[in-house]
Amino acid sequence: MSGAALGLEIVFVFFLALFLLHRYGDFKKQHRLVIIATLLAWYLCFLIVFILPLDVSTTIYNRCKLAVNSSPAESNGSYVTLAPSKQKCFKPWSYIPDGIMPIFWRVVYWTSQFLTWILLPFMQSYARSGGFSITGKIKTALIENAIYYGTYLLIFGAFLIYVAVNPNFNLQWNQLQTIGIAAANTWGLFLLVLLLGYGLVEIPRSHWNGAKRGYLLMKTYFKAAKLMTEKADAEENLEDIMEEVRKVSESIKYNHPLRKCVDTILKKCPTEYQERMGRNMDDYEDFDERQNSYPSEKSLAKLHKQVIYSVQRHRRTQVQWQILLEQAFYLEDVAKNESSATRQFVHTFHSQEPENKIIQYFYTPTVEWYWECLLRPWFYRVLAVVLATFSVIVVWSECTFFSTKPVLSLFAVFIQLAEKTYNYIYIEMACFLTIFFLSICVYSTVFRIRVFNYYYLASHHQTDAYSLLFSGMLFCRLTPPLCLNFLGLTHMDATISHKNTQPTAYTSIMGSMRVLSFIADGFYIYYPMLVVILCIATYFSLGTRCLNLLGFQQFMGDSEMTSDLIDEGKELIRREKRKRQRQEEGENRRREWKERYGNRDDSTRSRAVHTDQKESSFSETNASRPLSKYTRSNGRTERDRIELLQDAEPLDFNADSVHDDPLELDSGR
Questions:
Q1: Tens digit of pLDDT for each residue in 338-358?
Q2: Quick one: 604 exposed, middle or buried, by C-beta within 10 A (0-12, 13-18, 19+)?
């Protein structure tokens, strides 16, 4: 089993990252480099989270071996026995041989740092650029990132000059590397605590509110009103952009040098707009070089960028509107079925997507009624209580993990108790649940937040390339400080435990933070305590109230604006429901008419066809009889027509003039 667990987790994490990326990204329409870069960033971050518990169990076993080697002992198979106390150091089932984990962590960490600080910012500007060639997009990306890269180079250069001039500092390359890692982790820890404070409260609260059907329905109405406003804005924006594209397409003709750029823009437009513009084009008109009203290539690149953004936003709002309608209809069905006497779940509308037969066989209407109306609310309540308990443990441990005597961090207590008995299964499960819960709190916040239309992760393949790359960049910056924080909570980091023991392979790659004592003994210890204030602010919805005061409508039960938007959304859902009911009624009537009169219409149609064939054959026989009487006369008429054509005078196109009067011409007969 040596290394088998590592290989299995590597494969499992890859498919997990691929599944999530398929849910949010669009493999068919987005660029392959964007998909590969985002997949690599997500994969490396998830891999660190899943592999770190194996590193902890392997480190505990290596510490046991070091303790055995420092005292007389005898070896016996897969474990080592201490002679005086007869203590046994069992090798864990997921043990990773020496030398593998340091190389693994070094490759994963530096690859993720290269992605987040160099490659992904460049690809963001490249994907957002409106250039028409690869060279133009690269040039635009370099110009946009010049300030970004120049700032880091300026800070790093100033620091190197300060170190070179000051004789008190005698830093080596390893120490400079550690300082760079500490700076990156400090930036990540600053953002990590903000996201963690929100997730620790919002995740249990969202599951608790998920058990309230009335709350979910009111919030869905609220979302419907806001989404309709955004949808109308997106449609209006798309119309304005398409009008500009139409004007540009009419002004730049087929033989203009910039016509290729216009054709590239037209390919990005929706199909109905392409057909409409294609009908109004006249490619037989040449462009006039003397006119100065033609747009430049720079303005076309700007228009290209606006077209990509407006089309993506319009498509996203359309898909989100359909998904929100399905959610609203389903929640209304749940509210109606709660008082059902038959205890069978009845849907107002049938699902538009074909359901799996296996799911239909087991998930019957009776099972669905018991799950949706009885079991699901209680399940969400129990899950919310469990998550709230984890949140309280995390907050307590974040505030007390620096205390080593006595050990107040509950996660450190759990790991140390398991370490005494060398129960590696328990150690790995406890470590995995701890870091998995921390990751869920942080990563779910990254998936939930929305910075206007600048950054937004939308499911059902509606996330643009810029947001995907930005999420990968955030994951790569948040994961290393998240893992260091986890090791500090469990006292596996020697900087926190103040013990001269063997560090984990991950900590050895990070280097000793003692080079910067004010960060190791100050910021890393006391800044995570800020999570208490952030949790309190999230519990009382202070951020939501501030956004509501600034004019950004948020869902608040005690707000008049929220009540108005709920009523508006309820009316919109009712209108869409009536529209869909009329459509289904029309389809049902057509289906019933076809089933009732379809056979009769077929027999009538076949009888009419048979009658027409008889009539046509009768008319053909009657028409063929008098035809022989007039054969000679028709032949004479045909000969006269040929003679008249032979007597005609051919026109001379090389003559000096053309006369309209035939009397002025020579007869030639």
A1: 888 888 888 888 776 666 677
A2: exposed
